[in-house]
Amino acid sequence: MKKFLCVLLVIMLSLVCVSALAQSNTVSAIGTATISLEPDIASFSVGITTQDTLVTTAQTANAAAMQTVLNALTAQGVSQDDLQTDSYSVYPVYSYETDTPTVTGYEISNTVTVIVRNVDQLPSLLDAAVEAGANNVYSLGFQSSETTSAYDQALKAAAQDALRKASMMAQAIGRESGATISLEELSTSGDTYTSSRTYSLDSSYATPIETGMVTVSAQVLAVVELK
């Protein structure tokens, strides 16, 4: 009996909602659209980590090692404008052999972000950085130079999808969609595919890279008059 009453209550609530919708003067719907692009720009971070008992020695070694990596990248055609220091850190190295930790040296880490304008060149640039001495390579990502125009297309398609859904919802209650009262952009930008996988530092062979696709998505909320 209790189960029957629960089912009856759900049906009654559903009927009330449909009745309220039928009497409403507007209908709202969210439209979505996604466009896939082949990436033509890549980026990755490359770093050097050095240790020494003296901080100045560790810094000098780090600077020399990083310069060697940067020279290798520019020799492959990377512009200076596409090289940017991402982080630089100095940490003490502790020994825990006694009850009181003691500083035994210092660790220096220097990271540079590399923008790759020719995706086909990415494997050779990764290998060049590793061969030059880089001991950290990560944050590999892809994007497209056509993202802005693709987002405009997706936004238009999302608006059309929202209006289509609003029309279908109106028909479901025996009415027709009328004038569009408002269109609201719910998304603000396209999505960029980024990979955070760690790649092998063995540079004895070309690093295999799968670029995948960049997806650009948009969402629009439409409020439409009911006739």
* Order of SSEs: HEEHEEHEHEE
Class computed from helices, strands and strand pairing: alpha+beta
User: So, CATH architecture of the largest domain?
Assistant: 2-Layer Sandwich
| Biggest sheet statistics | 4 strands, antiparallel
Number of strands: 7
Mean pLDDT: 85
- The CATH topology of the largest domain: Alpha-Beta Plaits
N→C terminal distance: 42 Å
Physical arrangement of strands within the biggest beta sheet: 3-4-2-5
Molecular shape: elongated
Number of helices: 4
- What's the gyration radius in Å? 29 Å
Strand content is: 35-45%
CATH class of the largest domain: Alpha Beta
Helix amount? 25-40%
Q: How many domains make up the 3D coordinates?
A: 2
CATH superfamily of the largest domain: Protein of unknown function (DUF541), domain 2
Low-confidence stretches: 4-22, 194-205
What do these coordinates show?
This protein is an alpha+beta fold and 227 residues long. The chain has two domains: 25-40 and 145-227, Protein of unknown function (DUF541), domain 1 (Translation Initiation Factor IF3, 2-Layer Sandwich); 41-143, Protein of unknown function (DUF541), domain 2 (Alpha-Beta Plaits). The chain is 35% helix and 36% strand. It has helices at residues 2-23, 55-75, 122-131, 147-172, and strands at 26-37, 41-52, 83-95, 102-116, 136-143, 177-185, 214-226. Helix 2 (55-75) runs antiparallel to helix 3 (122-131). The two termini are 42 Å apart.
